[in-house]
Amino acid sequence: MDLTRGVLVTGADGQLGAALGEEFAETRVVRLTRSDWDVTLPAPALPDVDVLLHAAAWTDVDAAEEDPQEAAAVNVGGTQHAAELGVPLVLFSTDYVFDGRKGEPYVESDAPNPLSVYGRTKLQAEAVAGDAAWIVRTSWLFGWTSRNFVRTMLHLGAERDEVAVVDDQRGCPTYVGHLAAAVRGLLDRPRGLWHLAADGDCTWAEFAEAIFEEAGFDCRVRRVTTEELGRPAPRPRYSVLRSARPEAPRLPHWRAGLRECLERLAS
Ligand SMILES: NC(=O)c1ccc[n+]([C@@H]2O[C@H](COP(=O)([O-])OP(=O)(O)OC[C@H]3O[C@@H](n4cnc5c(N)ncnc54)[C@H](OP(=O)(O)O)[C@@H]3O)[C@@H](O)[C@H]2O)c1
Prior knowledge:
- By secondary structure, the chain is α/β, with parallel strands linked by helices.
- Helices cover about 35% and strands about 15% of the residues.
- It has 9 helices and 12 strands.
- The chain has a 6-stranded parallel β-sheet, with helices on both faces. A two-stranded parallel ribbon has the order 6-9. Strands 7-12 form a two-stranded parallel ribbon.
- Strand 1, helix 1 and strand 2 (about 30) form a beta-alpha-beta unit.
- The relative contact order is 0.17.
- NADP nicotinamide-adenine-dinucleotide phosphate (NAP) binds near residues 11, 13 and 141.
């Protein structure tokens, strides 16, 4: 895709927004934070660009259960406002549109059935974005900014001998740098639905153990069940994403992403 006019990134201060800003840095990047455009409102006057990478979202899965209207205002209303700009659109969606009962990797043709408010708002956002958008379902994002599992574990691992982590949810932890590079490749492929997540899969407990191992922390992981942790939002037990599209960009393994992220955090 010709990016002469540049790209517009919403949610530019989020973890994916930061990675997209870097990935497209040699083109013109218009980075928009919430203070530039609260996406629950129609867009202000914006420069002419070739593509809109819509990474702004309500991402607090548990809080969405308490405040479904506000979560929908950001995720569905925000996507509506982004689509109304009439610029080629990339929408980021989630593995949480699935209920996890399949037990083997989810591909684009699998029927969604979200368990949570967050998952439902993202599925509605997909519909609002429409067939003219690239809809990128991804999962378990982590990067060097914002709130995420890797940064939380590094914080806890430095302070504690043991942390309790769920061992009955399996997915693909995806490094935002790898996803941003794949999105660049996607812009030369047809629009529509694409599953883009890291290679490999693990449980949150296995991911935590890998984080401590790579970081050299002597912190034990106590494997617990979802019930024991008692979070407000239901989550799929199995949400490994794979693409059935032969031309889909392939992402590196999550462990390679973890190493890159830790190097970035240490630099
Ligand atoms: N995180 C994951 O594990 C995951 C998994 C699958 C898919 N996704 C999807 O990937 C995309 C990027 O996620 P992320 O992990 O980068 O999220 P993030 O780090 O939470 O960033 C989201 C960004 O959206 C901004 N935002 C929230 N409400 C807004 C509003 N009303 N107007 C403008 N900006 C607003 C936030 O700004 P403030 O900081 O001001 O709130 C934040 O900078 C989202 O669409 C998400 O649903 C995420």
